[in-house]
Hints:
15 strands
Amino acid sequence: MTYSKIAGTGSYLPERVVTNRDLEARIDTSDEWIVSRTGIEARHVAAEGEMTSDLALQAARRALQAAETGAGELDLIVVATTTPDMVFPSTACLLQAKLGARQCAAFDVQAVCTGFVYALAVADRLVASGTHGCALVVGAEVFSRLLDWNDRRTCVLFGDGAGAVVLRRAETPGILSTHLCADGSLAHILRVDGGISHGQIRGNPYLEMDGQAVYRTAVRVLEESAFQTLKRNGVTARELDWYVPHQANIRIINSLADKIGIAPEKVVTTVARQGNTSAASVPLALDSAVRDGRIKPGHLVLLQGVGGGMTWGSVLLRM
Ligand code: UT7
């Protein structure tokens, strides 16, 4: 039996930081409201002209360096993003060129905030099956460009960034199991329905959300998915070393940790300083805890994502 295993992680945040105080000066909101409802204090916003592939490039270089791998060794590049540089080519192809990687498979995955979990699951199967040997999996977003910055219900919640992992084939796990799910009947509760057609933008190009419906769904489906994942692997929540959930709202994260039975000190959170970076949030959080030495080789880690679709998923892995 062969597996895929994370050989290195990396991440990147754009330089510009927008704090809650900055937002207070522009719209009818308050630091107190944002912190008490979401736990978010600040978020990073990409510079004009800084594209998803630029953020992905920085995160990818750091992951490759951590894995002591050259871009020339990659034979698979998967980018999870909701904010591709252009309609096509895929951001993965643009990243491949920017990295100077050789000809290899490269494609994007679109599962909004669950994108990285979906991308990791796909890459895991391709690497573990022996079809590919060394994969780069990236979650990268310039979500700030999907926001109406006058809409206080949504613009305070999100930020930009990128996170990446290098996956290699291994004789020991590695990724233990992946669990993906979606319910398209909930498409209306979180969406950007705009699109390009006949040279025009059709529909609303800004994010719309029924926050409370998303909140309730996220807690329900991630709790179910966590127990399904633990059961499949015959492990208990107490055996987990780390929980790295999607970073949308500290109240969702705390409620999930409590329902699943994970001690607060085992939960990795970045939401306070980064907001919700959609597909980048899980690999950004993972990289932060790897780099500061909390997540160590051999640790058992549960990753979880949830987002538009609605989509959701879990990955159980041994670092
Ligand atoms: O990746 C998945 C993406 N999304 C999520 O995970 C989001 C899930 N949902 C949430 O995190 C929460 O539902 C929110 C943080 C979005 C909202 O919190 P809430 O406790 O559900 O607030 P609410 O929507 O019920 O709004 C309460 C009040 C409203 O005023 P009224 O109608 O009661 O007078 C809002 O207009 O808060 C008002 N409000 C704000 N006030 C100040 C909404 N946004 C703001 C704001 N500043 N930024």
